[in-house]
Amino acid sequence: MLIALCTTSVGIVACSGSNQQAAHDDTVLTSKTPYQPRQDVSAYTPVPAGYQIVMLQHVARHGSRGLSSADDDDLMLQLWQQAEAEDALTSLGEQLKSALDAMLNVHKRLGYGEISTLGRQEHAQMASRIVQRHEDLFSAEVDPDRSILVTHSGRSRAAQSGEAFVAQLVAEQPHLAARIQPAYASPETVYFHKAEGSEGYDDYRDNDPRLVAAMAQIEAGDKTRRVAEEALSRLFTDDFVARLQAGQYSFSAHADDEDQINDELDALFALHGLYSIAPNLTADADIDMTPFLLPEHASWLAYVDDADSFYGRGPGFVGEDITYRAADALFMEMFAQIDEFQRASSSAPLASLRFTHAQVTMPIATWLQLADTENSVEPDTLYTYETNPWRAAVISPMSANVQWEIYATDMDSELLVRMLHNEAEVPFPAECSALESGSYFYPYSEIKRCLGEIHNLEFN
């Protein structure tokens, strides 16, 4: 099925045929924010005279999804049932039950961790915009020996995102079906923190004393506990919340008994998990979680979530690159494929399409020093919204993507590269010199030189 294209009006991108919310300046959903392109197709800088696109390098997060596992909905239902049995529900708390039932029912249909209808729409619409921009690249006249490669993390939602993207490519350009190679999992390049050899990163995430101390201060500090008490008291009686705070209840998810609610913080984070994921499900169910968290509570919980991604997948601590170092493998593959084209090899892909997760799109944004990703902190300085621009909703919403467009001339000239982040033209790091001042086009040799020097890469 052909998915409608997005249009732009008064700076807001709207997509017909979907329920996406245009909310770029609203970061409260953090990495669960449904996708919107950040620049209209008609607004890109003109390609330098004589150049045409010859390759696309595309890395995208999976689309909007449901809950990754059967935990927050199950646990909140158990908590609600306990409160009901004790006659400890407020009038607002009573209303929560219908939302919980709807959440459970939609996951029975979709499955946990699976892409939602909205997620499929996001990738199909993205494919449509790419075809609209690059008709020459996907023309039937381009060397038929050059193929389209499709890789993913190995997780179903990443593979499903690739399927939606590729299906739309073929719907619009049927001849491409013969060029598209079977999709395969490549964790070393697009799921590197889960690939073999990632033990050092795992140890950092679980045991680094700087990270543990910072997140304990944020997640379990006085402000978070106050938010928990205020938010839960809107749903449950004060006595019930006091017993929850005292650790008098314990609930375990049926799917995994390690997922638990043991205190008010666990309950708060489970409630926020449902609040955050509901907008991803708008094309599959009518679930409004906004009555159950006040805006000021949702904003604080967004900060808590952004802090976790900042320290775990973003710039983190000054002098530390463990959160994004493993992205080297992905970029070395991208360089190798572009080099193949330079050698006039017919094995050079026409496009390389990769589908992954926030665990990758956040680190690669940091690796590339994209705007608002480069400000790390000293260990004794806490990440805060007031002092740091890192926002997952902007850097890595659902379907977040980085595209490298490779351009060449008919002559034996230097290749050019333009980079898009969430479909907006963005510069390479300041150490890289553009074709001319203010341009988004860079000589490929310069990109290879400057990124190689920044990250100590060795090329053959």
Secondary structure elements and their pairing?
Blueprint: E1 6-9, E2 12-15, E3 52-61, H1 72-85, H2 91-110, H3 117-133, E4 148-152, H4 156-172, E5 184-185, H5 187-190, H6 199-207, H7 209-219, H8 222-233, H9 238-245, E6 251-252, E7 260-261, H10 264-277, H11 295-313, H12 328-342, E8 351-356, H13 358-367, H14 392-395, E9 401-408, E10 416-421, E11 424-426, E12 441-443, H15 444-455
Parallel strand pairs: 3-8, 4-5, 4-8
Antiparallel strand pairs: 1-2, 3-9, 6-7, 9-10, 10-11, 10-12
Subcellular location: Membrane
Organism: Aliidiomarina sedimenti
Protein name: Multiple inositol polyphosphate phosphatase 1
Q: How helix-rich are the residues, as a percent range?
A: 40-55%
Largest sheet: 8 strands, mixed
Number of discrete domains? 1
- By CATH reckoning, the class would read Alpha Beta
Separation of the first and last Cα atoms: 44 Å
Corresponding CATH superfamily:
Phosphoglycerate mutase-like
- What would you report as the Rg, rounded to the nearest angstrom? 23 Å
Could you list the spans in which at least 5 consecutive residues all have pLDDT below 50? 1-25
- N to C succession of SSEs: EEEHHHEHEHHHHHEEHHHEHHEEEEH
Mean pLDDT: 93
Number of separate strands: 12
CATH topology: Rossmann fold
Pairing-aware structural class of the strands and helices?
Answer: alpha/beta
What portion of residues belong to β-strands?
5-15%
Tally of helical runs? 15
CATH architecture, please? Answer: 3-Layer(aba) Sandwich
Morphology? globular
